[in-house]
Design a protein that fits this description.
12 helices, elongated, Heat Shock Protein 90, 5-stranded mixed sheet, Beta-Lactamase, 5-stranded antiparallel sheet, alpha+beta
Length: 364
């Protein structure tokens, strides 16, 4: 077979199809619908160690894979059936290489009247190896980040425990001593009583601040009662006290999950509430917890002003969207899935699905 071009430079020049095929660096075959090789380029010698003249007319699966039947995953049957180009990524067990096997129908027919298909095979092993290395590196980074997050949460727990067991106890004792001192003052010690009452009130303020700090560091209710009660308390202490109408809907059988999962969900919900208070101007918020068989799904939906999601994530303002970026990172650390739905004037819904253990699936 040959292709002709007229009046190229001077006279008539003939361009042979074989010359075109041989210019391609990866191996190319012309095959019929029954997998028999009609033509091949010289790259078969480089990639397969076979002379092209030795394989013309031979059964392609036998030549390439050493089998007497179509190779599993070969795109030829699909290309013949659909009459369209088909490309597939395959692992060749014989050579231990990854390839893209592509079949392209042509309008040409063989001398036997059979449709001819262009079969191109590109070795992508190096790319696949690089992708796998990148995947492994990302997984190592994820595990490291998850470990560091666990260490950070454990440190918060330790600090909260020390504040509760030591600092808050000392402040409580100080408050008691001040109360006793005020009660033992003579009736005419007006100035001293006034100063001690101020000191007592100050100790109360400090103690309240310490308790709030303890709660922010590590909500005791999360450890003792679980995620649902902890989120209820968070709803009351953040949204409700700010005048936002908030409701909680729980679906499925409530259960305790691994501590890293519970604290991640709690922190995400906490950050979502903070964003609502800072930016949303919402009047109503609905929180939903779906306890599935292998995962938990959480939805926080508000009727606020909404925002342009892409604009926030691509903003050059590093502060803007920091909360959403933190949420996304926490979800990724837990091998979860995050979906944010929002548009200006139409409120926002944040949906996350997190496996309740360190698994790769979140299926029911």
């Amino acid at each position: 077979m040959e292709i002709k071009t007229i009046n190229q430079c001077q006279g008539e020049t003939e361009i042979k199809l074989q010359d075109i095929l041989d210019a391609i660096p990866f191996y190319v075959l012309l095959v019929d619908a029954d997998h028999y090789i009609i033509e091949a380029n010289k790259a078969v010698k480089t990639h397969l160690g076979i002379e092209r003249d030795e394989i013309i007319g031979k059964y392609c699966p036998l030549v390439i894979h050493g089998i007497q039947e179509p190779y599993e995953g070969c795109p030829l049957e699909e290309a013949v059936e659909r009459n369209t180009a088909v490309e597939k990524e395959l692992y060749d067990k014989k050579t231990g290489r990854w390839v893209i096997s592509a079949i392209y129908p042509t309008r040409a027919v063989s001398s036997e009247g059979k449709r001819i298909y262009l079969h191109m095979v590109t070795d992508i092993t190096e790319r696949k190896v690089a992708q796998e290395q990148l995947k492994n590196s990302r997984e190592q980074l994820r595990r490291l980040s998850a470990y560091l997050e666990m260490v950070r949460e454990e440190e918060k727990r330790s600090i909260a425990r020390d504040l509760h067991d030591e600092t808050s106890q000392v402040l409580a004792s100080l408050h008691a001593y001040l109360e006793a001192a005020i009660g033992n003052l003579p009736s005419n010690a007006t100035r001293s009583k006034e100063l001690l009452e101020k000191a007592r009130n100050l100790s109360t303020t400090i103690l309240d601040g310490v308790h709030e700090l303890i709660y922010q560091l590590r909500p005791v209710m999360l450890d003792e009662l679980g995620l649902v009660d902890a989120i209820k308390a968070l709803m009351e202490s953040s949204l409700e006290v700010s005048g936002v109408n908030v409701s909680l809907k729980v679906i499925g059988e409530v259960r305790r999950m691994p501590a890293p999962v519970e604290i991640a969900i709690y922190r995400i919900v906490q950050e979502t509430f903070n964003n609502i208070l800072k930016h949303a101007r919402a009047k109503n918020v609905l929180v939903r917890l779906f306890f599935r068989r292998n995962h938990i799904e959480v939805s926080v939906k508000d009727d606020g002003i909404g925002f342009n999601i892409q604009e926030v994530f691509e903003s050059k303002d590093k502060i803007r969207g920091m909360g959403l970026i933190g949420i996304r990172e926490r979800v990724e650390l837990m091998k979860g899935v995050l979906n944010i739905k929002s548009s200006p004037g139409k409120g926002t819904e944040i949906i996350l699905k997190i496996p309740d253990k360190d698994s790769d699936d979140g299926k029911d």
